[in-house]
Specification:
Belongs to the multi antimicrobial extrusion (MATE) (TC 2.A.66.1) family. InterPro entries: MATE_euk (IPR045069), MATE_fam (IPR002528). GO terms for molecular function: antiporter activity; xenobiotic transmembrane transporter activity. Its main location: membrane. It is found in: Membrane. Helix 6 packs across helix 7. The N and C termini lie far apart (about 45 Å). The protein has 19 helices and no strands. The chain has one domain. It is mainly alpha-helical. Helix content is about 90%, strand content about 0%.
Length: about 450
Amino acid sequence: MWFLIKASIPIILAYMLQNSLQTVSVLVVGRLSSEALAVAAFSYMFAMATAWLIALGGTSALDTLASSSFTASKDKGNLGVLLQRGLFVLTAFYTVVVVIWCFSEPLFRALGQPESICIHSARFLQLLAPGGLGYVWFECMKKFLQAQGIYRPGTYALLITSPLNAVLNYLFIYTFDFGIYGAPVATGISYWLSFLLLVAYAALIRGKECWSGLQPRRALANSWPFAKLAFLGVIHVGTEWWAFEIVALAAGRLGTLPLAAQSVIMTADQIINTIPFGLGVAESARLGNILGAKNPRAARRSAHCAAILSVIFGSIILTVLFATRHVIGGLFNSDKRVISLVADVIPYVALFQIADGLNGSCGGALRGMGRQWVGALVNCISYYGGALPGGIYLAFHGWGLAGLWMGQCVALSLVGILEWIIVGLSNWENEVQRAVDRLDEESHDSIVVSHH
């Protein structure tokens, strides 16, 4: 358990700092006008629901394959090949998103957004597109190092780029007079700098022993199984995130006051969510390593420790949220009605923290086993099979914003409990065998390619 705490803390910090890049960008833009603030917030929200999903969900294929390859494979260079495969496949995924961004103006109109959002957000996203690829590659590089048990460099890189990002945003928006369009350019530069710092760390300090040069033929040879896992990883993470975005859109229909309160709650929830998500990432890398080392008993122990740890974390967060529910709104907004509404809704957010912890840790365990499809299926059933429609129904039948979050509370409780049961009932000997089979398939394809 101590190993998981030690591994997850730098990962959680890295995700918090990563989120801060766009939060700071929105705050700097917000000084221009409230319209500019709305455009930046909406654009980053859309980026999160599309491109950042590829970075955070798609790279789970590396959690599955790279971590078990590191402990099981005699040729450590296989990990470098997997990194190249990840960069290739996820760049292909990202290209699809960029095409959507390029034609997002009519899409936003179809979603009923105000005209200013349609025009400016479409342009904002087009300018963010080159930098967004840096985000995806940065995540790939982080997973490459995490598979080797190197967890801290992502945090080190972001400790440098995070303050630099604030300066760049200010320079591009105000000094260079780019206005609102300076934000995506500056943030994009920050993403690429973060990636380059990780490459420098691996090359100069630690992590390069698993790199055996560029091998495009080997990287492309077995990309279909990788693409399948990556796609399911996107769906696994996406089904949850999209549900929260739907709640945000529904809150907008309830009026200005609920929308303001929803923005506060979502911002707080995004910060809190980095804790179970970071724990899940640490667990998936750790579990992959153990499965690759062919140790079913240690794998079972690791999964149980992660679940227990997530319940402890969740209980602490629950207590803090309950204790500070009248204070949270005031940190973001001075309107007494908004502060009061936030205080009314926060208890529902607090209630699902233990379940969200289990969702993070057990979801991480499923990704480490290569069972992304199970997590995706559980999310689809829990969110879209009743909880989300039920929450929306309650919201427009007298419950307001509290109704929406009640739906989320039910959904997350279902996800957490179901994933915990599924992981608890796993046959670990079978999981070890499946990890070995995946690596055998990998090495067989490598031999075939090298003989051609």
